[in-house]
């Protein structure tokens, strides 16, 4: 698996020479073929700017980028052939029918006329809009428009999809539909590079994530790696039978065990103990064995607190967002 | 990364004249923008309402012209049909130019900025559609409607043929001037459309340009005329101006006369009638002291057409460059 999107030292400064500010700073990132890469960051972080540079719309101030082996600076046509771009707005013609809209963009992508009928039919099928084929684009709902725009970005069967906030402004149902579509596209072998400022919608479809904050890439990697790297301490919560003495004994025992730190009584749940653990699964299981067999503690539950992506995000961006 | 294939030699490009038909087809016939624009323009009632209103206006105007002349001309042998023919023809052409000036900016000033306002501009620019195809498609489809308006008025002009007095040359020259005016105004408005943020600003500036280049130039000419008169007035004064000054002034004045559609049409007609030519002619040198006895001049339409064709080409080229450029 090789990198299909490659950015090296990509920077963008807006404004004139006297007063400019960097929207993207020295971004180096590569995305593997077939990956679903979630580009996460709060509003104004520089996600759109990065994507506009990749789609040859915006001239980088410095740095280089390649998509599917084509240089963004030197071979914009090659890049355009390889990518399907969906910006964070719809971009529809109000006086056009759904099939005309797709046919028009397919023609703009040099899809031959005899193939276009089949292509638009397949695309409408894919995004589940076949029944609205002869309606005016204007009459579609937001969710439908978004699906139509996704279909448009697929008109020339690109290998890479660059989607800017594909789920923003949609109701939960439409959001799920988009997510299912992305999953389907991924299974078709397309590389998807998409941005979002809402983490929960990213978590279960991404293979990789990158977190951008104030123009700087603060973390990037595949999902498990990211969760591990960003959260070396796993929080464990346990509940045991007995009164305060039992809890005191448990804390004593935990205190002497290797890898255990930050033992606390959670204020929200009396009778429980929360501690951080810096080891792998085997070590954690050994801890449990020790507590039960060597110390005779009557443990009712013993579980790892799930460190959601939201936590990862907050942890990564803490202090930067002020 | 970024390495180019060195093995295969790039295929030799065929000669220009062999590429030309294909390029023409891609730019005009097989251009998705043309297809989309024409479909959009002809959809609904607007296109037909405009066409009908335009023809109604022209017919009324022509009828009024005809009856006014036919009834007021107090010639002993009745109205001269030869003259009526000329007047009706001139009236129709004049009205057509006015309408082209009014209609062309309205149809072209929103072409690029409209895409920007609908947020489809960047979408188009990420497709494989080249900047030149986008601009050509926009301009050609807008102008095709203007040309339709011009052509639709031909039957009215042919009335003048029935009355007599209109030669083929006059028809060809007037239609050529109309066409070039439409193309130049369209190209300039399209450029402004690519340049301005909103369609509104582009439209306002396009109209300003259209009126300045048609009504503004005669004003300039009127300011210029007294100077010419003053200088040539020297003929009767004590001092005769230098012949080079006179010749230069005549050429400048002639040029100003020639780059205005109305005066170019009238002057070309006068040249045709007086000098019996549609191309070159000469007049006697009005001052002495020159090694030449005559001044060579061309019929104004021969200046007008290339001049505005150049303006159109320049505007087109600038627009394509603008559309091709990445945002900085
Ligand atoms: N055309 C522009 N001119 C000037 N500043 C801009 C422009 N576009 C974006 N910015 C600035 O660049 C920063 C990054 O913007 P953007 O890339 O749109 O962020 P995101 O998509 O992550 O919300 C923001 O601070 C924004 O104000
Ligand atoms: Mg954005």
What is the helix/strand order of chain B? Answer: HHHHHHHHHHHHEEH
Distance between the termini of chain A: 39 Å
Structural class of chain B: mainly alpha
User: How would you spell out the order of helices and strands of chain A?
Assistant: EEEHEEHEHHHEHEHEEHEHEEHEH
Overall average residue pLDDT of chain A: 85
Average pLDDT taken over every residue of chain B: 82
Principal-axes shape call of chain A: elongated
Q: Measured on Cα atoms, how large is the radius of gyration of chain B? A: 24 Å
Distinct bound molecules:
adenosine-5'-diphosphate, magnesium ion
The biggest beta sheet of chain B is recorded as: 2 strands, antiparallel
| Strands side by side in the biggest sheet of chain B | 1-2
Query: Can you list the strand order of the major beta sheet of chain A?
Result: 6-7-8-3-9-10
- Biggest protein-protein contact in the assembly: A-B, 34 and 24 residues
Helical proportion of chain B?
over 70%
Strand content of chain A: 25-35%
Q: Tell me the helix content of chain A.
A: 25-40%
Q: What is the helix tally of chain A?
A: 11
C-alpha-based Rg of chain A, rounded: 25 Å
**Oligomer classification:** heterodimer
By DSSP (H or I, 4+ residues per run), the number of helices of chain B equals 13
Question: Domains counted in the coordinates of chain B: how many?
Answer: 2
């Amino acid at each position: 698996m090789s990198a299909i999107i490659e950015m090296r030292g990509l920077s963008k400064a807006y404004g004139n020479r006297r007063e400019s500010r960097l929207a993207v700073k020295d971004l180096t990132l590569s995305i593997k073929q077939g990956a679903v890469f979630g580009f996460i960051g709060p509003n104004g972080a520089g996600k759109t700017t990065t994507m506009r540079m990749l789609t040859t719309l915006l001239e980088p101030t410095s740095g280089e980028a390649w998509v599917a082996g084509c240089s963004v600076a030197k071979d914009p046509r090659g890049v355009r052939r390889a990518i399907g771009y969906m910006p964070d707005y719809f971009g529809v013609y109000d006086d056009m029918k759904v099939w005309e809209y797709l046919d028009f963009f397919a023609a703009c992508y040099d899809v031959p006329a005899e193939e276009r009928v089949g292509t638009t039919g397949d695309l409408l099928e894919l995004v589940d809009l076949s029944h609205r084929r002869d309606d005016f684009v204007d009459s579609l709902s937001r969710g439908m428009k978004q699906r139509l725009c996704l279909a448009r970005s697929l008109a020339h069967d690109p290998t890479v999809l660059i989607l800017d906030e594909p789920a923003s402004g949609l109701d939960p149902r439409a959001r799920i539909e988009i997510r299912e579509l992305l999953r389907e596209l991924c299974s078709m072998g397309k590389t998807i590079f998409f941005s979002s400022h809402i983490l929960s919608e990213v978590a279960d479809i991404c293979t990789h994530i990158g977190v951008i904050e104030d123009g700087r890439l603060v973390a990037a990697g595949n999902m498990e790696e990211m969760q591990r790297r960003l959260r070396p301490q796993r929080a464990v919560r346990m509940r045991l039978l007995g009164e305060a003495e039992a809890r005191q004994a448990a804390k004593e025992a935990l205190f002497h065990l290797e890898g255990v730190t930050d033992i606390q009584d959670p204020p929200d749940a009396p009778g429980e103990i929360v501690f951080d653990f810096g080891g792998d699964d085997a070590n954690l299981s050994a801890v449990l064995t020790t507590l039960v067999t060597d110390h005779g503690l009557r443990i009712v539950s013993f579980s790892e607190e799930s460190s959601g992506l939201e936590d990862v995000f907050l942890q990564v961006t803490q202090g930067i967002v002020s | 990364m970024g390495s180019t294939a060195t093995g295969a030699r790039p295929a030799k490009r065929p000669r220009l004249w062999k590429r030309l038909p294909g390029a023409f087809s891609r730019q005009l016939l097989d251009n998705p923008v043309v297809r989309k624009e024409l479909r959009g323009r002809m959809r609904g009632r607007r296109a037909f309402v405009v066409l009908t209103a335009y023809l109604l206006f022209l017919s009324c105007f022509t009828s009024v012209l005809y009856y006014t002349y036919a009834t007021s001309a107090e010639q002993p042998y009745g109205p001269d049909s030869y003259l009526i023919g000329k007047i009706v023809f001139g009236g129709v052409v004049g009205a057509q130019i006015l309408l082209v000036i009014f209609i062309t900016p309205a149809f072209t000033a929103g072409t690029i900025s409209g895409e920007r306002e609908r947020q489809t501009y960047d979408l188009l620019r990420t497709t494989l559609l080249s900047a030149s195809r986008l601009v050509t498609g926009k301009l050609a489809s807008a102008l095709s409607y203007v040309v339709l308006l011009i052509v639709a008025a031909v039957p009215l002009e042919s009335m003048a043929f029935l009355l007599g007095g209109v030669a083929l040359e006059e028809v060809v020259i007037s239609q050529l001037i109309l066409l070039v005016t439409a193309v130049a105004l369209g190209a300039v408005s399209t450029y402004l459309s690519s340049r301005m943020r909103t369609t509104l600003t582009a439209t306002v500036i396009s109209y300003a340009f259209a009126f300045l280049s048609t009504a503004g130039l005669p004003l300039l000419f009127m300011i210029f005329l007294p100077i010419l008169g003053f200088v040539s007035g020297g003929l009767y004064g004590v001092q005769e101006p230098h012949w080079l000054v006179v010749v230069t002034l005549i050429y400048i004045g002639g040029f100003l006369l020639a780059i205005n559609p109305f005066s170019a049409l009238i002057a070309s007609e006068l040249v045709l009638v007086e000098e019996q030519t549609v191309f070159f002619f000469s007049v006697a040198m009005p001052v002495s002291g020159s090694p030449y006895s005559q001044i060579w001049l061309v019929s104004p339409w021969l200046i007008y057409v290339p001049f505005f064709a150049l303006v159109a080409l320049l505007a087109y080229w600038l627009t394509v460059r603008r559309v091709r450029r990445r945002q900085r």
